[in-house]
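User: For documentation purposes, I need each entry recorded in a consistent format: the amino acid sequence on its own, followed directly by the corresponding structure tokens. There are two entries in this batch. Please keep commentary to a minimum and don't merge the entries.

Assistant: Recorded as requested. Entry 1:
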Amino acid sequence: MFVIETRSSSHNDPHTAGVHERLSERGTHPIIQDILATGFLPKRPTGYATPRVEVSSSDIRTVLFPALKAAGLSLAYRIAHRAKKRAEDPKRGWGTVTLGAICTEVLLDSEVRRGAVPSQEGRGIRERLFSAALCREGPLQLAVLLFPVRDRNPAKNDGISPDLGEVEALVQLWTVTKALECARDQYVGERLEVIQRALAISHQSHSGLFGSLAQIIEQRSAPTSSGISATIDLAINLSRQKNERLTRRIADFGEELKVYAIYDQEKTAQLLVELARQNRTIDWLFQARDVRPEQPISILAIRDARRYPCFSSESESDIEHYKDELNRMHDVLQIGGGVILTSHEELEAQINPIELGKFRVHRETIYRGKKEKYLEIFQSKKQDLFKACSRTEFLNLIGAYESSGKIPAIFEAILHSKHHDSLLAWSSQFGVEASQHALHFLMTIYQPRCESQLELLRQELLWQTLAGAVEYVAAYESNSKGGNHLQLDDVELVAPGSIRLSIHQKPEYAGHFAVQVGASVHRTPWHGTAYVREDSQGKGYVLESRLALELKYEQAIPVFQDEMLGERSAPPQPGIIRQDDSIDSDNKQVRRIRREYGQPFFWLERNLARKLLEEDGLDGRGLIDKLSALGIRRS
């Protein structure tokens, strides 16, 4: 649900430094605090800067989406090529380069992984997991928890619908599956070419070529020396080259041939000559024999909106809306073969009811025990915590009471993500400015209030957030194999045998692959807003996930669709940039704009918007064409 926030700016936060990444969202609080310290608040009730840009939803779907997919496919080929080179590099220590090793290197590519490359031992753990998955019947399946629901914090985003950030996240997951497919096809294809060239066999299929090979030479369990010398001599004669190196390579096959049965000496000799020319071994050739080139490869993208009890106050309608709009994006992108959108609830419905019931009983027992243990730490310290007069003092006290660092690390992530009913009820009295007052209250939560009613509200929010952090950690540990004595794991339950991906850093021994999701490494799309800027060379465009408040503070330009993710609305007026002077004073106009345009689909850097729309004279279609032609890269 949460991801560490480590912006490279000056926002350094000592309270969460060095804490396990999965339990932290560093940076959100300081960034918002810095902006509000300047006196900035969105001047308009909608929070949208004017002018704004309007584009056709049809152009988004028929021009931009395919361009993102094309870029993803191109990246997949590059990732696969790099993975093969790394796997064959002796410095990586793979020894025998298996398909599992290459697949591991795919997920450790710098444009896929999150965090540092595991040690050689850690890579070995992951290679064995991949090799086992490749041998099992059925599809090669990877699984990752993500896409819960849009964060309701007004500083993070402006609505509950997915935006361009979620589109990029879906494309990123699909790119991983295509890279794995490319790596496998390359792995098998190289060997098939050797067989075809050596034996002049026209069969194109994997099974046909290896079936023909089995009639010529085959692996056996016991060593033998029968026919080896004669086959080696024949191969040397067939090479017809006075090349000592080639002859030496052919002669070296003698030892390797001891575990092979030779049925056709002449054709085996032809095969040896071709392998020697390619500087390959017989074992290298046979590594692809049991590979299934048609094995489907997919990622289970498991929505986890209901995994954590601390978010039980999230609106069911918001969760369903987010799911429905995400499914529409998925359908339009046409990536169903590579990315399967599902949820814990949908997968649990397929589990044996008795097995599921036992799991839930054990998990609930572990969850309650962990929750009580963590809460007990703070129960007697409540009043001491409420007396703290600053953020530093409050977080230091939590850290002093709970030495593992788990609760203080997750505290502000819960504070800025949890749906606070009591805060919303209090702020609703301010009408259209309710979100501004709610945000300001959250940012001053560590400062005691003189007014008793507000002080009670402050203490209630602090305690609810602390309890929420406890619930999050208890739920996480009771659902994760390494966090409980029974080794319960909810993903292992619903997706057995899957290669585990994670959007957070995990201990190396877990064997999970930490992967980037979406445009920014350190902010997931549902915790932020999609933002397009020009790259540093001015030759392309970069997509990021940023805080909505940051974008408004920087006067970025919001880009709206005429149809908000499938919800039909009035078509945009012919002018692409539209200035609306009445927005500040006319609440009816505010409501109309919200109804027609929903939330921005992404934001444009202000100077980039001026350059594209004024200098180039583009209309909405021209803007999408330009972004699609030059490509949008992840930050």
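Entry 2:
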Amino acid sequence: MYRRHTTVLLVSISVVSFIGSSTNAQTSPPEFATSQPAASEEGPTTSGPADSHDSPTASPSVPKAGPKYLLLRYNEDFSYLDGEPDTYNSDIFDPIKNIHLDDDWRLRLGGEIRFRMESETNRNFGARDPTNDTFLLYRELLHADFHYRNTFRIFVEGIDARVADRNLPQIPGMENTFDVHQAFADIRLLGEQTPLTLRIGRQEMIYGKERVIGKLDWMNEGRRFDGAKLMYASPKFDIDFFWVKPVFFMNKPFSNPWNTHINEGMNHKIDHWREEQNFYGIYSSYKGINDQVIDLYFLGFNDRGFFTNANGRYGDLNVYTIGSRFAGTAGNFDYDIEGGGQWGKWDGDEVHAWMFGSDAGYTFKNVSTTPRIGVGFDFATGDDTPRDGSHDTWNQLYPTGHAFLGYMDDVARANIISPNVNFSFKPVKDVTAKLTWYHFWLDSNLDALYNAGGVPIRRNVTGSSGNDVGDELDATVTWQIDVHSALLVGWSHFWPSNFVNSSGFSRDSDYVYLQYQFRF
């Protein structure tokens, strides 16, 4: 089985690499621009740095446009193909990127093929059996984007995501065969000259640096929501109002080994939103200062279900979040700082929590390898006095934690203190190497260690195990082969410390992966 899938992988890589183009120029902003700032992707991406619209603004140093593939595929724009042939760099996929159905309607087609081989050793510190598992993840995405002038559009994306040769239990999101990943309609309510857009349907969402809302692209299936969003976008100020429900997928109906209560109210349907859950908010971005962005947001999360809190109580949850983010560049320096507070109630317990996240770096732009040295710090409160009527653990909502708290995914933005130091450089053109070291402490030694999914995986109710969790080292090498394809190789190692050593299984963990991605 494994040999057969490996053969398919190698053949597919050979075919798509042969037809790929090396064009990597930039495009103009998308027709239906949104106020969703782009974040760094947790793996190879065929798109480069982006502004708050997830699409770069054309630069005078780039004389010709060309294909640009973004983290949010629905934000891509290929209208430059209406220009004269000598005004843009041609690409093999141009014929399907700007199809004029008539004078008013146009169609854009695209997709992705992604393969990843993973090898885990002693994940969860050796608590799982077998202690080593090597398996293959692969997915195919195909989308169609219909536009009526700049007034109306329909975006539909299908997915086929599968896993092969895995011996450990599957994690939710690994597999979803032949399903609808996204399907939404956009309409400019006041006409195409006024950028006020209403979106209704199934959609991916990204805000800020993905510390609170991200698409979780590292997961084989990814994250999406069903609901509505009202968006206003301008050169200096963007604001979104949204109300959505998260879409859940389970490999077998009525089955979830991590939380048996999560199936309550799901109408026994695969790929259906959770009826009892509502997620809504306002997210705004101010971009009137050169090379800087200021985000302000309010988020509400309600669940009439049976999730268990840090005090051991389960029931209705109502939590509200207010936060802000400041990010930008100044010469060779870059920074990203975000903080937020939460309040509400969880089955009678008062919610009081807060978090802080930051990253800053200096890039040596005059050095041929453009090295960057960076530091970061992440903090999220835990509950230091269980069963006192107050719940103080930060609710991480819907983040992409994989990019901030270690690729091992053993740590969530909840009850954690984590500094990190990182270094990246380009040994050759189109190849980026990065090394990141993290150290982890619990904010409260009476609260749990939560994994990237927000599930408590280790706890000592007496607090006698201390709060020193351990260290993680992540090493990655990304090769941007051409505008369509990228290759990622990574290795992570975790050294457990006192808290893990004295509260259960405690073995060093390793995680190795190889990923190839092709976008068109």
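Summary note for entry 2:
The mean pLDDT is 85.
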